[in-house]
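re the bet — no i am not wrong, look at it urself. input seq straight from the record:
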Amino acid sequence: MQTALVRGYCYVGLAIAGFLVIVSLSGSLIVFWTEIESLFNPGLFHVQSHDRSMFGFVEVAWATTR
């Protein structure tokens, strides 16, 4: 009887340990999601700047006086 309880205790402990490993890994994935995403997809975090001289002073002044 005692050996069955010890064996069951060990299996329950292993099951709980497996659950904690899964929870810990998924939590780490959530916490470091931005860093992981920038590691695998660096192009998503770079924005191409547009030429700001697209509108001249005259066009901006004309648009604001309308």
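see?? Residues 25 and 37 are 16 Å apart (CA to CA). told u. also The mean pLDDT is 85. so pay up
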